[in-house]
Specification:
The structure holds 2 protein chains of 2 kinds. In chain A, the strands form 3 sheets. Chain A has a 3-stranded antiparallel beta sheet with strand order 1-2-3. Chain A is mainly α. The radius of gyration of chain A is 22 Å and the shape is globular. The longest helix of chain A is centred in the N-terminal third of the chain and has 29 residues, at 105-133. Chain A is 47% helix and 11% strand. Chain B has helices spanning 3-14, 37-46, 68-71, 124-136, and strands at residues 18-22, 29-32, 54-63, 79-88, 93-101, 114-116, 139-141, 169-170, 173-174. In chain B, the strands form 3 sheets. Chain B has a 5-stranded mixed beta sheet. Chain B has a two-stranded parallel sheet with strand order 6-7. A two-stranded antiparallel sheet of chain B has the order 8-9. The longest helix of chain B is centred in the last third of the chain and has 13 residues, at 124-136. The chains are: A mainly alpha, B alpha/beta. Chains A and B meet through helix 9, strand 6, strand 7, strand 8 and helix 14 of A and strand 3 and helix 4 of B.
Chain lengths: 401, 176
């Protein structure tokens, strides 16, 4: 009788090593800040993951109980420090919602320009860092080179490069300087061809596809159940973006703009962009799609900025002035979520009739994105951990608050 | 669907648990009693017309005025309040659930009040409840892993309580 042939993978399976606990972080470069993850591994396979957070906890919510809403604004810059403008906007709109304050069309268009510029900057960091975590240095340098130009534009408008405190409740500090809109457009013109380079470097790169396609696949039901939002949710094929589906005070900012929510619904992206082809290996909800959705959102944001520049230039009247520093808040509460680059960023303010909030709450999207890691990383290889963490695009500043 | 209609839907099965509402508020809310929370949450999630599939946020608010002079002027008794912000992605509507609970269990200072966990209804609740436990001091019964999340595990007190006293040192490190 012929002996049964032993398959190589059976041999591999028989050679079992002992279970090991591996500590990753909080100083590990690919944990994107001070995230600590404890992996239980069996050889190269991760059997369970326990994230530990809180290393950057700065009592952000408690501090808000000591300051007026305008004094608190600089603290919001330090939540998601890669998109300070979007944090400012979220806080400003929440204050406006609480006060029943509406800003003029001109202010809204300026806010769209600023928020979308910052979204591009944040997505560039996400794309570059994901490349870096997967072992290629060039995209990191190239994306940071482009982000630098956005930071220069921001420096011109508010004097800061990271902690802007520019979009204030009620309006903006002061309008853009002479010729700024022109320089904004010049940046977009120059940046457009660079996106093709990035697609060539990462999106269609065979190594990148091998490392990210079908890795960390997040089914839509799990994503919603864990409270995942933003590009992470959309990459799982859920057609949801609160720039379109949010509350009126936020969505009216985007009234009159032409744009579509980017999500691979049924495996297909909306077909009004010249996309690079989706690799065969990729599955909806995997790390590759999370990366790809962000890359497409960069193009979309550019379109929004171009429209906003046109509308801003055509808008009549003046920019709104911010509310006074010691403006009294009503004895009521207001909760508002905005679409920050990382996902839905929620702020809540409960007033008690004085100028200082009784309670403030910050709901962070990255917080939910880390909480889904144990689910996502069960059974993956250790080498895939950095890919998955990078594809979630987390920032510990907003997780730990 | 607006909060008023949702309230009507809840009325039939859960009437005794609905204790308050405000449809005119900035974010319309329905107040329920704590014991009915898991069942109402499950109903809100599973009913086809409601379909609240996303739990955005859980917040605990401490209503307590440490200043005795100011405390005379407030129009509430000291209590804690839990806020659940819900969204339905499918139906595109929102709701706020409120539930009140005492600041301390059985009025004994230091004993944390208890609330039922929603971690098996929405997984988001898992980490959010840990945060509420850590910062506001509410123990969630039935939670799979009730431990601190942001503060160190041996931290004392719950910082978002209004009467929280910041310690002067932590393991020999001056913190104040």
């Amino acid at each position: 009788m012929q002996a049964e042939r032993v398959q190589p993978d059976t041999v591999e399976f028989d050679v079992r090593t002992d279970e090991m606990l591996i500590n990753m972080g909080p100083q590990h470069p690919s944990t994107h800040g001070v995230l600590r993850v404890v992996l239980r591994t069996d050889g190269e396979v991760v059997s369970s993951v326990v994230p530990h957070i809180g290393y950057l906890h700065r009592s952000a919510e408690k501090i808000a109980e000591k300051l007026t809403v305008r004094q608190y604004l600089p603290f919001t810059d330090r939540l998601d420090y890669l998109s300070g403008m979007n944090m400012n906007l979220g806080w400003a709109l929440t204050v406006e919602k609480l006060l029943g304050h509406r800003v003029s069309g001109k202010t809204r268009h300026l806010r769209v320009i600023i928020a979308e510029l910052n979204r591009i900057a944040s997505h560039l960091v996400a794309a570059g860092c994901m490349g870096l975590d997967l072992g290629s240095f060039t995209p990191y340098m190239w994306t940071f080179r482009e982000r630098e130009k956005i930071l220069n534009l921001f420096e011109e408008i508010c004097g800061a490069r990271l902690t802007f405190s520019y979009l204030l409740p009620g309006g903006v500090k002061e309008g853009p300087p002479e010729g700024w809109l022109g320089r904004c457009e010049a940046f977009l013109d120059q940046f457009e061809p660079v996106i093709d380079d990035l697609h060539a470097l990462l999106t269609n790169n065979a190594v990148f596809i091998k490392r990210s396609a079908s890795v960390g696949t997040l089914p839509p039901e799990t994503a919603i159940n864990y409270g995942c939002t933003g590009p992470v949710l959309r990459a799982s094929g859920v057609d949801w973006d609160i720039r379109r589906d949010g509350e009126p005070i936020y969505t009216e900012m985007y009234d009159g703009y032409t744009w579509r929510v980017i999500a691979p619904v049924g495996g297909r992206y909306p077909d009004d962009h010249p996309y690079p082809p989706i690799p065969r290996e990729a599955a909806v909800g995997d790390s590759w799609h999370r990366f790809f959705v962000r890359m497409l959102e960069v193009v979309q944001s550019m379109g929004l900025i171009r429209q906003a520049i046109e509308k801003y230039a055509a808008a009549e009247g003046e920019l709104d002035k911010p509310i006074e520093i010691r403006k009294k808040l009503p004895a009521a509460g207001a909760y508002l979520e905005t679409e920050a680059p990382k996902g839905q960023m929620g702020f809540m303010i409960i007033g008690d009739g004085s100028a200082i909030p009784w309670r403030a709450r910050i709901r962070s999207s990255s917080f939910c994105h880390v909480s889904v890691l144990p689910e996502l990383c069960r059974g993956v290889l250790i080498a895939d951990m950095p890919t998955i963490i990078a594809s979630m695009d987390i920032v510990l500043g907003e997780i730990d608050r | 669907m607006n909060a008023e209609k949702i309230y009507d839907l809840l009325q039939k099965p859960f009437k005794p648990w609905l204790v308050g509402r405000d449809f005119e508020a900035i974010d319309p809310w329905i107040e329920i009693s704590l014991e009915g929370l898991p069942e109402i949450a499950r109903f809100l999630r599973d009913q086809d017309e409601l379909a609240f599939d996303l739990l955005n946020c859980i917040t605990a608010v401490d209503y307590f005025e440490p200043d005795a002079k100011k405390a005379e002027k407030v129009d509430w008794q000291p209590h804690l309040e839990l806020l659940y912000h819900l969204t339905s992605l499918r139906r595109k509507h929102r709701l706020v659930l409120k539930a009140k609970l005492p600041r301390w269990k059985d009025g004994r200072p230091g004993e944390l009040p208890e609330a039922p966990s929603l971690a098996d209804v929405w997984r988001t609740a898992d980490w959010h409840e840990r945060e509420v436990f850590d910062l506001a001091g509410v123990r969630f019964t039935g939670h799979p892993d009730m431990r601190r999340i942001l503060c160190p595990e041996d931290w004392e007190g719950h910082p978002l309580r209004k009467d929280y006293q910041m310690p002067t040192e932590y393991h020999g490190i001056q913190v104040k």
